[in-house]
Design a protein that fits this description.
The chain is an alpha+beta fold and 366 residues long. It folds into three domains: 181 residues, Roll (Outer membrane lipoprotein wza fold like); 76 residues, wza like domain (wza like fold, 2-Layer Sandwich), CATH 3.30.1950.10; 78 residues, Outer membrane lipoprotein wza fold like (Roll). It has twelve helices and 16 strands. The strands form four sheets. Strands 1-15-14-16-12-13 form a six-stranded mixed β-sheet, sandwiched between helices. A five-stranded mixed β-sheet has the order 8-7-11-9-10, covered by helices on one side. A three-stranded antiparallel β-sheet has the order 3-2-6. It comes from Dyella marensis. Belongs to the BexD/CtrA/VexA family. It is a multi-pass membrane protein. Keywords: Cell outer membrane, Ion transport, Lipoprotein, Membrane, Palmitate, Polysaccharide transport, Porin, Signal, Sugar transport, Transmembrane, Transmembrane beta strand, Transport.
């Protein structure tokens, strides 16, 4: 967020205010084309209707699990650099426990070296990294057969090396998770890392894999019980952003105009108005509830102004299904003519919050 965005929000809301608040009228599509003070090509007025709600619900890509993530199945574990292997050759303790049977298994482990190889008696140096446990066990059995009659070889990984799943962002624990022979789902990884629910943006999870970023709605996937359907692979990176810069702004004729933190993707218009204490019954105009969206990019594409006719009881049912987005300005107009400075006194301090800088706030309020 920056000062420029804050000023754009202010200007757009003021322009909207100037178009709406002539005595006895509210903005309509016809008014839109008549106003000389507004460029209709840069704004789009959209009534909030059941049809609009159905279209929005069907077009939320973050709540949809990508096919490539849904279809991925964990492969057998492949040995990595730094892994320690415990190799048992039955009836041959000198090969199984060269450090002595009284020692811990870790003392008798075979560590995969930085070049991906390990040394084993009689066999010498052999490539281990990139192979499954079964593949390496079979190779050792085959090569030992030259020196040991019918060798019975068993193998297990007793400690894991460099293969990791990275956890970053708004987690309580951000320690890398080791990749083991037991597959790990996204749900298990997040459960281990523990989400910082006070600070996390639950709608902005990013899973980076093989050079591609998958943007996921953690809150929606959790509610739909889909997290367990995503299996992780070595090298995956999981980032959960902080939500301190994502807010919805509620201004105008409400009880407590302010900026409210936005942590999930399903904050409804009703919830946003509720956080502001609801409409001011004395001064608000029921058919003048607007959601201004896309102001920061209006130089490139038209901003969208959604209108709710809150005089109708059915409107509150629609408001509870209309999702607000980060950066939206919810504006409730007054019942009568309002002076410019009254609206400025509400919007400009709020724009100072948007800048997240005390100096910028002072510039805007002064």
């Amino acid at each position: 967020m920056n000062k420029r965005r804050a000023l754009l929000l202010a200007c757009a809301a003021l322009t909207l205010h100037g178009c709406i608040w002539a005595p006895g009228q509210h903005m309509s599509a016809t008014d839109f084309s008549r106003q000389g003070s507004i460029d209709a090509a840069r704004y789009q007025l959209v009534p909030i209707t059941p049809k609009l709600l159905a279209m929005d619900k069907a077009s939320n890509p973050l709540a949809t699990l990508p096919d490539e993530l849904r279809s991925y199945q964990p492969e057998p574990y492949r040995i990595g650099i730094g892994d320690s292997l415990y190799i048992t050759v039955w009836d041959h303790p000198e090969l199984t426990s060269p450090a002595g049977s009284q020692q811990l298994p870790s003392a008798n482990g075979r560590v995969v070296r930085a070049d991906g190889t390990l040394f084993y008696p009689y066999i010498g140096v052999l490539k281990a990294s990139g192979k499954t446990v079964e593949e390496l066990r079979t190779e050792i059995s085959h090569r030992l057969a030259k020196y040991v009659q019918d060798p019975q070889v068993d193998m297990s990984v007793i400690s894991y090396g460099a293969q990791r799943i990275t956890m970053r962002g708004a987690f309580v624990k951000t320690d890398p998770l080791p990749v083991t022979v037991t597959p790990v789902s996204l749900a298990q990884a997040i459960g281990t890392a523990q989400v910082n629910t006070d600070q996390a943006d639950l709608s902005g999870l990013v899973l980076s894999r093989d050079g591609h970023d998958y943007h996921l709605d953690l809150d929606a996937l959790t509610r739909n019980h889909q997290l367990a359907d995503i299996w992780l692979k070595p090298g995956d990176q999981i980032f959960l952003p902080y939500g301190d810069r994502k807010e919805v702004y509620v201004v105008g004729e409400v009880q407590r105009p302010a900026a409210f933190p936005f942590k999930t993707s399903d904050m409804s218009l009703t919830q946003a108005l509720g956080k502001a204490g609801g409409l001011n019954e004395t001064t608000s105009k029921g058919n003048a509830v607007y959601v201004i969206r896309g102001v920061e990019d209006m130089e490139k594409s038209p901003a969208t102004i959604y209108q709710l006719d809150a005089k109708s009881p059915a409107a509150f049912a629609m408001a509870s299904q209309f999702s607000v987005h980060p950066g939206d300005v919810v504006f409730v107009g007054p019942a009568g003519v309002t002076r410019w400075n009254r609206f400025l006194s509400q919007l400009l301090p709020l724009s100072g919050i948007v800048t997240n800088a005390a100096s910028a706030k002072n510039d805007l309020t002064n």
